[in-house]
Amino acid sequence: MVNVKILPDKTHASEEVAQILHDLIVEKPNAVIGVATGSTPEGAYERLAEKIKEHNTDVSQLRFFALDEYVGISWDHPESYHAVINRTVTVPLGVDPSQVNVPEAPDDAPVGSVESYDEKIAAAGGIDLQLLGIGRNGHIGFNEPGTPFDAPTHVGELTNITREDNSRFFEGGVDEVPPTAITQGIGTILKSRQAILMAFGEAKADAIRDSLATPPAEDRPGSSLQHHSNCVLYLDEAAAAKIED
After folding, report:
1. Is 101 a catalytic residue?
2. What is the CATH number of the domain that holds 216?
3. What is the C-alpha radius of gyration for the chain, rounded to an integer number of angstroms?
4. Of 101, 137, 143, 166, which residue is the catalytic one?
5. Which of 42, 68, 165, 210 is labelled catalytic?
6. CA-based, 20 to 30 A from 197: which of 97, 188, 229, 230?
7. Among residues 22, 42, 69, 139, which one is catalytic?
């Protein structure tokens, strides 16, 4: 069951998601949180950082697991997800880098499963709340269309549309975007106890419509969330414009 909440804009949605995160941290100081990258969740991270500072919230026991990372990119590259998570989550929230996990794979990693990351998540007690965004082609994490719904963390090839969309972050354009990435699998994501997907803007309207269409299908990765036990989509009106029901 996927629940949908439509907010006036990204600012309102980011505030609500940040409050949910802060409430979780207060209730469970050793919570395990799955974090996404990209521009979509940044407002929520900013508001959460403000709430932590305002309330002097204890973050020393939290653990974070990032969704994905490019293969074949240096971790100190400004657009590696090691670097992005550091500047949007680790530093603003005031957590120690040892509390934050980002998936890793060798530069020459073949396409296929990487079980060690799922084992680390399980050892931490599982993810309490997983934040997600969605690509124009419906990918969540870097689970591209056709990814099995039971897939574990794995290395996969990125589609042209994903590389083109992410090229805005790279000075050299699409040619600088790595062709492969390691990502939490859909099966990994579905094991989280709660999931929140955020999507804003008309460019995401088709992906949101397809994610809610039934029955779920592997060529629409976002539709896998219909199998999640506790998932809410936080949308602005533009992203929700094509929802049929």
Report:
1. no
2. 3.40.50.1360
3. 17
4. 137
5. 68
6. 97
7. 139
Return per-residue pLDDT of the chain as tens, 245 residues: 799 999 999 999 999 999 999 999 999 999 999 999 988 999 999 999 999 999 999 999 999 999 999 999 988 899 999 999 999 999 999 999 999 999 998 888 888 889 899 999 999 999 999 999 999 999 999 999 999 999 999 999 999 999 998 898 888 889 888 999 999 999 999 999 999 999 999 999 999 999 999 999 999 999 999 999 999 999 999 999 999 86
154 is catalytic: no
For the chain, what is the domain count? 1
Task: Mark whether 137 is an active-site residue.
Answer: yes
**Do the domain assignments include residue 240?**
no
Structural domain contains residue 73? yes
Domain ranges, residue 122:
2-235
Please name the residue that has the structure tokens 């934040």: 131
Contact 221, 147 (CB under 8 A): yes
Active site residue 69: no
Given the residues 42, 118, 144, 236, the one annotated as active site? 144
